[in-house]
Amino acid sequence: MQTIYLDNNATTAVAPEVTAALAPFLADQYFNPSSAYDQARQVSAALQTARHELAVLLGGVTPDQLTFTSGATESNNWAIGGVVRAQPQRRHIVTTAVEHPAVFEVCKELARQGCDVTFLPVDRSGQLDRDAYVRALRPDTLLVTIMLANNETGVLFPVAELARIAHETNPAIIFHTDATQAIGKLPLDLTGEFEHVDLLSLSGHKIHAPKGVGALYAKRGTPLRPLIIGGHQENGRRAGTENVPFIVALGRAARLAADHLAGVDQIRQLRDWLEEAVVRTIPYLEVNGQGARRLPNTLNLSCHYIEGESILYQLNEHGICASSGSACTSGSLEPSHVLKAMHVPFTAMHGSVRFSLSRYTTAAEVDRVIEVFPEVVASLRRISPYWDAARNAPRPTAPQEAPAHPTNH
Amino acid sequence: MAWEYSEKTRQIFMDAVHGKPGTHMGEIEKPDGFGEHGSIVCGDALRFTFRVRQHATDPLQDVITEARYLTFGCTSAIAASEALCTIIEHGQYTPIQALKVTNQDIVRFLEGLPAQKIHCSVMGAEALESAVFNWAQKRGVDLALAGVQLQTKGEDEGRIVCKCFSVTEPYIRRKIKELNLRTIPDITNAIKAGGACASCHHAPGGLQDLLDEAWGRQPAAGGPLPPVVPLTEAPAGASSFQRFKQIEQVIAQSVRPALQHDGGDIEVVDIKDNLVYCRLSGACAGCMGAQATLKMMVERTLKEEVSEQLRVIAV
After folding, report:
1. Are residues B267 and B278 in contact, defined by beta-carbon separation less than 8 angstroms?
2. Which runs of consecutive H residues, i.e. helices, occur in A69-136?
3. Looking at beta carbons, which residues of chain B come within 8 Å of A399?
4. What is the distance between the alpha carbons of residues A306 and B72, in angstroms, rounded to a whole number?
5. Which of A312, A355, B224, B255 has the fewest Cβ atoms nearer than 10 Å?
6. What are residue A93's phi and psi, to 5 degrees?
7. Helices (H), B62-202
8. Which residues of A are known to be catalytic?
9. How far is B284 from B263, CA to CA, in rounded Å?
10. What is the pLDDT of residue B234?
């Protein structure tokens, strides 16, 4: 059976060009870039090329402001922890209730260690209240960390504006953004629109590079203590012999992402096509993040009165790979903290499915999902104690949180 | 988490959702026994019904002939419901014999369940128990006289230990013994308690205390978790009252009328010390150039009329 891969916010397929670019560094180009001989100099030059390619994707920043890491989780841990360690006298952090765990849990850990953390709420469509953000900024605010695009819903936060407001309030406030999901899907100019961003985390495996490589952009002059100590590599900012093959891969993937930015509209058209079709055919379906600006590739749905894991399981029988914020797909028993923060109705909270597309997604694949998904939902509703299959509507006795939206009219 | 279900679980689930003949999805009209467990808020729920062949004189000799379920839940919750009905029908049990079917029987029938999914089998056993209780009421059977120690819902009422899943102290105490639960993860896997915010794990009277009371205190593995610091609310802006009134007055008397004259408007979002956060709206708001000009105009007016220190930030 053919695989239909619609889980690109989880990870992406490595691009063939990327595999080809990294291969020599797993073969004869094995030298340590820090060594003195000519052979090593070639490897070290490859690192600099990769850094330059990534700098171009970020609007042409000076490349030495980029440090390669093992991925966005390390970048986030480093950025947030490194800022706090550099100025321990300032204790206030502003973040949101819907950050990725690599930010959310780090902030909660810092709160346990004595930092004061403000978690900003979001509304029903996943958007921040800008006034609440303004009110949260305080004289002792050290750090603002707010994601650019939400990994679950694709909802975008106005990070360029929020960073400007932070700096106009107090230039000493450091603004960090986790841009893991936004990179390659939106133009991101750190020398223009996003000039007020001080720190930015990104990951390779969301843009068709392998897992295990990422980067942190740190604007020159940003007070930041290192996370990994024990070597002079990366200008002393991140110790450890560089992961040359994967850094080369990240550089190549960044170049491809820049080349493909113009083609993002095609991904958006496929996503919109999928969204319109399922909203038309499936009653009692929520589009999470509807009404907000969203990533072009992400569609997060909640089906009332059924559970997400059993949806995924059936989709997978058709070769379709997607994900869910349902409790049963995670290690915890709680549904997604993002959907909870958005106050998704409790009857739909456990029935979420996320489809995330890539530039490799085809119209035929989307059509197949449009064919299969409504039948999967219907089969689980037939088995649900809350659904009346004959009327194709909830039973009158089923719990309801007003207002439910019977969307197919 | 990738699927870790047995082939049997997978097959039963697929047969059930496709309504293959011989499966038990559905609900019996006017059933002889009716039981429910779980809720939509908690993420899984089971509605279980059965019919008996009534014995002419002795209800204790009724035999279950048909069992049906409707389930809201994950793959294993649906498979466990299907397994329960198959076991009950196949065994030709009397309702009281059916009570001997435990969650372990369901797990065995499914050829194993991942540890985090054990609660799906417990849900089946619980729904069965309450359906038998319902049958006994309808048939006028005194279960105590029949030698059954059945916990009524009332006996499980009491102090709520796990607020996330509304699990009470008497219920947890009973299940710790019945299901031989030895650790907090055991409890969470079986009955969900403690599976969300975790604040009941080591609180006084929490899960660890109940385990210690049941089994005696175990040597601590890594010490208790550090207390979770409550999340702070965004504070309301605290600014000098007099300064605030002055700024508001200037905006009301000179800034706003000037803006409104051109079809625009201004809203003060917050004031912190010398920073005035404004939302500039109306006809000019869409234009970035106009936005900057407006900001400068408002700032100049405030500097002249209130204080040279003031700065305006557009929000």
Report:
1. yes
2. 72-86, 101-112, 130-136
3. 39-41
4. 6
5. B224
6. -125, 140
7. 75-91, 95-98, 103-109, 118-139, 169-178, 184-191
8. 328
9. 8
10. 35
> Same domain, yes or no, for B87 and B172?
no
Q: Note whether B1 contacts A: Cβ–Cβ < 8 A.
A: yes
Residue B282's pLDDT is 65
CA distances from residue A42 to A20, A35, A85, A232, B75 in whole angstroms, order as listed: 17, 11, 36, 19, 53
Of B16, B17, B226, the CB nearest to A112: B226
Rounded CA-CA distance A316/A245 in Å is 33
Look at the block and give the residue holding tokens 């002249």: B304
CB B195 within 8 A of CB A334: yes
Place B239 in a pLDDT band, splitting at 50, 70 and 90.
low
Asked whether residue B293 carries a pLDDT value surpassing 80, the answer given is no
pLDDT under 50: residue ranges of chain A: 404, 406-409
Pick the CATH number of A4-9+264-394 from 3.40.50.1820, 3.90.1150.10, 3.40.50.720, 3.40.640.10: 3.90.1150.10
CA distance A292 to chain B (A): 18
State pTM to two decimals. 0.83
Q: A329 and B1: CB-CB below 8 Å? A: yes
Region of poorest pLDDT, from A18-27, A125-134, B94-103, B287-296? B287-296
User: Which residues are registered as beta bridge partners of A118?
Assistant: A94, B232
| In contact, A6 and A311? CB cutoff 8 Å | no
Residues B195 and B306 in one domain: no
Taking the Cβ of residue B37 and every Cβ of chain A, the question of whether any pair is shorter than 8 Å is answered with no
Chain B residues lying within 8 Å of A346, measured CB to CB: 40-41
- Where are the domain boundaries for CATH 3.40.640.10 in chain A? 16-260
Distance from CA of A99 to the nearest CA of B (A): 15
Domain(s) of CATH 3.90.1150.10: residues in chain A: 4-9+264-394
Q: Which of A138, A332, A386 sits opposite B72 (nearest CB)?
A: A386
Secondary structure (DSSP) of A200-267: EEEESTTTTSPSS-EEEEE-TT-----SS-SS-TGGGTS-S---HHHHHHHHHHHHHHHHHGGGHHHH
- Residues A346, B41: C-beta atoms closer than 8 Å: yes
What is the domain extent for residue B35? 7-142
> Which candidate from A305, A347, A385 shows the least CB-CB separation from B47?
A385
At residue A80, what are phi and psi to the nearest 5 degrees? -75, -50
Contact residues on chain A for B2, CB-CB shorter than 8 A? none
Dist CA A315 CA A15 (whole Å): 25
* ipTM of the shown complex: 0.77
Cβ–Cβ below 8 Å for A385 and B272: no
Q: Which of A26, A165, A42, A321 is nearest to B277 (CA)?
A: A165
Indicate if B31 and B136 belong to the same structural domain: yes
**Nearest CB to A384; choose among B41, B72, B233:** B72
* Inter-chain CB proximity A334 and B311 less than 8 Å: no
* Backbone dihedral angles phi then psi of residue B310, each to the nearest 5 degrees: -70, 145
User: From 3.90.180.10, 3.30.70.2860, 3.40.50.620, 3.40.640.10, which CATH number describes the A16-260 domain?
Assistant: 3.40.640.10
Residues of B in contact with A169 (CB under 8 A): 272, 275, 313
> Chains A, B: CB contacts under 8 A, how many?
140
Q: What CA–CA distance (Å, rounded) separates A45 from A317?
A: 47
Of A129-143, A287-301, B101-115, B154-168, which gets the smallest average pLDDT? B154-168
Question: Are residues A175 and A167 in contact, defined by beta-carbon separation less than 8 angstroms?
Answer: yes
Looking at the structure, tell me whether residues B34 and B159 fall in a common domain.
no
